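Input (ABC transport system permease protein):
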Amino acid sequence: MYKNYLKTAIRSLLKNKAFTFINVIGLAIGISAAMVIYLVVTYDFSFDKFEPNGKQVYRVVSQITFQGEVSNNSGTPIPLHKTISTVSGLKQAVAFRIYSEDVRVKIPLTNTAPATFKSQDKIIACDKSYFNLIPHQWLTGSAAVAFNEPNRVVLTQSRAKLYFPDLQPAQILNKTIVYDDSLTTSVSGIVADTEANTDFNFHDFISLETFKHNNRQPSGGDIDGGYEKDSWGSTSSYDQLFIELLPQTTVEQTQNQLNALYKRSNKNPEPGEIHRFVLQPLSNLHFNADYDNFNQRIASKSVLYSLLGVAAFLLLLGCINFINLTTAQSAQRAREIGVRKTIGGTRQQLIGQFLTETFLLTLVAAVVSAGLSYFLLQLFSGFIPKGVVFTQIFSPGMLLFMLLLITVVSITSGLYPAFVMSGYRPVQVLKGAGKIAEVRGSSFSMRKSLTVSQFVIAQFFIMATILVSNQISYLFNKDLGFKKDAILYIRTPYNSVKTNLKQVYLDKVRAIPGVDMVSMASDAPSSSNTHSTTFAYNDGKTKRETNVELKYADTSYLKVYNLKLLAGRNLQAHDTTGAYIINQTYSKFLGFTNPQQAIGKMVNVNNQQVAIIGVVADFYQKSLHYAIKPAAIAYNKNSRHARNLHIALQPHIAGAGNWKAAISKMETAWHEVYPDDDFEYRFVNDSIARFYRSEQDTGKLLKWATGLSVLISCLGLLGLAIYTSNQRTKEIGIRKVMGATVTQIVLLLSADFVKLILIAFAIAVPIAWYFMNNWLQDFAYHTSINIGLFAGTVLATITVALLTMSMQTIKAAIVNPVKSLRSE
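Output:
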C-alpha cells in the first residue's frame, strides 16, 4: 500500500511540474531559514554548559549609583577577593585578573634574537582555583603545583603551539616566556583547549604568586603597573570574582552578606554614591550587555527569540502557500478522487495518499534547503557567529531537528487539503462539480483567511524594514556636534619605553604632505571607551556633584574635530591639568543659563580646585542610544590616556589614491619610531559606524525576511488567483458576452484581492506600531513613526500583488467566452 502511495505521489508531482516547483521553492525558503536560525540559536544557548554545578555558579558584579544614575561594572574591588571567605554559604570562590588586548610576548632563543609575538591577548593572573571553575585536561603539569611558585605560567595547547611550534608539551615545561619586557616567567603546565562553547577562552595563566612575591599587582593594560590593592572604592572590570553557592544558599542571602561586608569595610565612601553587589548567573554571562564577557561577542536573547519568530513566520508562510496552491489545483484532481472512491477507495486511503505527496514534496524541499542554507550562511556571515559553520547541518542534533521539521511541515501543510479533497462526493465530482465550495454562512473562505494572514506578516516585515532603514539613515546623518569625515586615529604603544617617542612620531606625521592637522589626545569625541570622575561645584548656596566624562587633549584637538567653542578660550600648553573645557550640558547642570557665566568658576576634581576656561557646544560622546552627559576636556598630552594621534587629512586631497599615499608615509614613519610594533589605523567615521552594527545587521535581516515573505505571499496570492479564476470561468464568459471589457474583468477579479490586502493592512498596522515604537525606545534620539511609512507599505504591497495577479487575471479575462462557457 505504501509503495503504491509513493509511486502515485511521484507521478502526481511530476505531472504538475509548475505546481511542484512553486511549492518546493516556497517550502525550501522557509526550511532553509529555519535551519540557519536553528544553528545560530542552538550555538548561542550552548555556551558554558560544561562547568560542574554551573547552575550554582555566579559572577559578583557591581552596580554603582551616583546622583540617580546607575552604571554597571563586571568587576569588584580587590579587597573583596581577600575577604570573600568571611561570607557564608559558599562552596568556592575564584578570583582572577584580566590583562588588556595588547601584550608583547618574547620567547628567548639560543644564539639568536628572541621570537616576538605582538598584541597577544586572553592573558589572566589566577591560581589553581580557576581550574576548579573551568575544567581543563592537563597535558603536562598539574593544577596542584603549577601555581604554587612565583613567575610561573600555564598555557593552553594552542598558545603553546604558537610560542613553541616545534616542541611537544612535555618539552615546553620550564621554558622561559617574557611578557612586555618586564615579567619573566617559566612554563609550569600545558592544558588542552576547551572544545565546548565558552566565553572563558583564556590562553595564558600567570600565577598570582608572581605578584605577591614581587610586591606588585597586575593592572589592566600594564602587566607590571601599580595598583591600589587595599582600596574598596576602586572597581575595575579587569578584577573578576566568581562564586559557587552551596545548594541550600540563596542568591538574596549572599547578596545581602556581600553588601553588608562592603558597608563595614569601606571607610571612605564617595558622597552620593551607592555601591551594590549583584550575583550574575553563569548562564547569563553570554547574553547580558550590561556587563562584559571578557570582550567576547554578547548575544541578545531578544534577537534570538526574534529569529525564532522569523523562522516560524517563514515556515508558516510556506505552509499557507502550499495549502492555497493545493486547493487551487484541486479541481484538476476532482475526477481522480471520484474515480478512486467509485472503485472502492476509502477516505483514509485518500488522506494517506495526499499526505504522502506532501511528505515527499517537503522532503525534496528539505534537500533543496540544505543548498540554500549554505548561501544564507555566506550572505549573512557578518551577522552569524563565527562558530556556526555549514558542516553543522550534518550533526545528529540537526538531522533530528530536520526530521521533526519535515514531519511538522508535512502535517501542517497537507492535512487540511487532504481532508477537504478526500471529502468530495463521487457523484458530484464525476458530474463536473468538483470544486471546493466556500464555507456557507461565511464571507471568507479558509483560503482567503490564510491569504490575509500571509499579508499581515508580509506587511509587518515591510513596515519594520522601512522603519529600521529610516533609523539607520537618521543615525548616520545626524549632526554629532563634531567633524567625523577624513579623520583617522592611530594608537601609540601603551608600554613605549620612551614617552617622548609619541611627540617624535607626531612631528613626523605633521610633516607628511596631505595632513592638515594632528592632535595627541585620548579618544575621539564619540567613543566606546569611557573615563570619568566626580566633579563637585559649590556656589556658596548649593553643592552640585556628578560624574563627568574626561578627555585628555592638546591645543589642536578642538580644531581637528571642529568643536565649537561657545565661551572662553582653547587649551594652552601651560594649562597642564589645572584647567578644563566643559560641554554645554555640564554648564547647564551647574546652573548657568549662559555659557559665559561658567568661565573662571572653580570645580573640585579629586580634591583639587580646577578652573573652567571654556565651554564647547554639546557633542555626542557615544551612540545615539545614549543621551549627552556632562563632559570635560583637559590638557594633558603626557597622560597615559592621551596616546592617540588624531589626524585630519586635507580636504582638497580627497581620493583613495592620495589618502593611500599619505597613510603609507605614516606607516613608514611608524616603523622608524616603533620598529617592534605593528602599524594600525582607523577612520573615525568607521568607528562610529561600528556603534550601529547591530542595527545594520537587523536591517539586513529584515530586508531578507521581507523579500522572502513577500515572495512566498505572492506565490500564495497567485494560487488564490488561479483558484478564483477557475471558479468564476462561467461568470467571466457571461460578462464578456454581455459586453464587459478585459479591463473591467481584470478589475473585477482584482478587487477581492485588494480587499484582502487592505484587511491585512488594518490588522498589521497596530501590531507593527506597537513593536516598532518599543524598538525605538532603545534610542535616546530617534526618527519618528509617520503616516508615510504606512501609506508606502500598503501602496507597495498592492502594487506587487497586482503585478503578481496580472498574469492570471489577464489570462482569464482574454479567454474566448465560447470556450469559457463550454468548459462549464
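The longest strand covers residues 543-553.
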